[in-house]
Each structure stands twice: as C-alpha cells, then as structure tokens.
Amino acid sequence: AVDLGALDTAVKRLILKAVDHYDLSSTVAALRGVPTTGENLARAFWEWLEPTLPAGSLRRLVVVETDNNTFEYRGAAAR
C-alpha cells in the first residue's frame, strides 16, 4: 500500500511541477524528441514516478485528456 499523501506529493513534485503550463516538446528535457501523445505522456510519467514508490506499488497510471480520452500505462512488464 502507498500513503496517498506521499503519492500526491510525488505527483505534484515529479510530474505537475515539470509539465503544467509548459510547451512539453521544447521545455521538458525528458520529452524532447518524443511526440507528446497521451500514450507517451503516460509512459513518461510512469518512468518518473515509479522509482520513487515502494517496489510493485504502482500498478497503473492514467492520463485523462478529456472526458472521452484517457490513456493508461501499466509498466513495461505488462506488455
């Protein structure tokens, strides 16, 4: 189990602070040269977040673009 407060803090620090209100393709080094599709963002956010959490605790990551567009990533092992 993951402490939800710690998860919220990690998401804000590692993801939102890095991408909120930025041109992702030009200002976020980890996303340069990567098409910023929902699928690619979900994978990138997983790669940033997963190492900071207890092993095996992140099971899926969902990026919600609109009410009708969501993108889910379950890690490389789920392929």
Description:
- 41% of the residues lie in helices and 10% in strands.
- By secondary structure, the protein is α+β, with helices and mostly antiparallel strands.
- It has one domain (4-78): 6-pyruvoyl tetrahydropterin synthase/QueD (Tetrahydropterin Synthase, Chain A).
- The protein has a two-stranded antiparallel sheet.
- A hairpin with a 5-residue loop joins strand 1 (61-64) and strand 2 (70-73).
- The protein is globular, with a radius of gyration of 13 Å.
- 8% of the residues are buried.
The number of distinct helices, counting runs of at least 4 residues, comes to 3
Q: What would CATH call the architecture?
A: 2-Layer Sandwich
CATH superfamily: 6-pyruvoyl tetrahydropterin synthase/QueD
Beta strand %: 5-15%
Mean pLDDT comes to 91
CATH topology: Tetrahydropterin Synthase, Chain A
In helices, the fraction of residues equals 40-55%
* Class by SSE composition: alpha+beta
Shape: globular
Unreliable residue runs: none
Terminal CA distance: 23 Å
Number of strands: 2
Give the C-alpha Rg. 13 Å
Biggest pleated sheet: 2 strands, antiparallel
Strand order of the largest sheet: 1-2
Any idea how many domains? 1
- Seen as an oligomer or otherwise, the chain set is single chain
Topology order in helix (H) and strand (E) letters: HHHEE
Q: What is the level 1 CATH name?
A: Alpha Beta
